[in-house]
Sequence to fold (202 residues):
Amino acid sequence: MMKKKAKIIVLATHNRDKIREFREKIGNSLQLKTLDDYPDLPEVSEDGNSIRENAYLKARAVHAFSGLPAIADDTGLEVDALNGAPGIYSSRFAGENASYRDNVLLLLERMNNIPQEQRSACFRTSIAYVDNQESWDVEGRVEGRILQEAKGEGGFGYDPVFFYEPLQKTFSELDLKEKNRISHRGKALDAFIHTLKIKKYL
Ligand code: ITT
Fold:
């Protein structure tokens, strides 16, 4: 029997850290292209009111440009004591071209006076899928607590200050596989893969 050819999907991101996590989870079951394969794609403005809307904005734009099925990940960190901030502004919390470090430092500064028991937060990821016949989305979420200082070397973004109680570690102290098993993105990817299987795309 001929082996089924892996479906090609474009992952609508420039973020190398996200790409690494997607590849670890998806393996060879899909042929994953990224925006590195489409250097001429015009900038997509992420001006939706939710991570779900922003994921659709990116996936739709990349599907329209490439003609291929496209997926996008939009992620936000929601801190309870900050009324859900930085949320959809997570990547530009400290300004338009802020680095991961700038964002983490601003977060710690804003939470300076907040006691331990009020530092709960969650990461939320929306993954949107768009092709020429359908569009759908899945979500993943994980709860944790924001530490007073960074800990660990791995991961990216807010991982060094995101403490995950069940493992008593920050996300930066987990390796790629461990993080993917329990994280917001890992769970969203599990739901995404599950949906692809139901639709017999995998
Ligand atoms: P694309 O839009 O190109 O996908 P981005 O970095 O702008 O890349 P988002 O709009 O989803 O991605 O921004 C989310 C920000 O939240 C991101 O810049 C990181 O600072 C942070 N972030 C996302 N995923 C994270 C994770 O798994 N762990 C820690 N921080 C994360």
User: Anything to note?
Assistant: The longest helix spans residues 51-66. The chain has one domain: 7-198. The chain has five helices and eight strands.
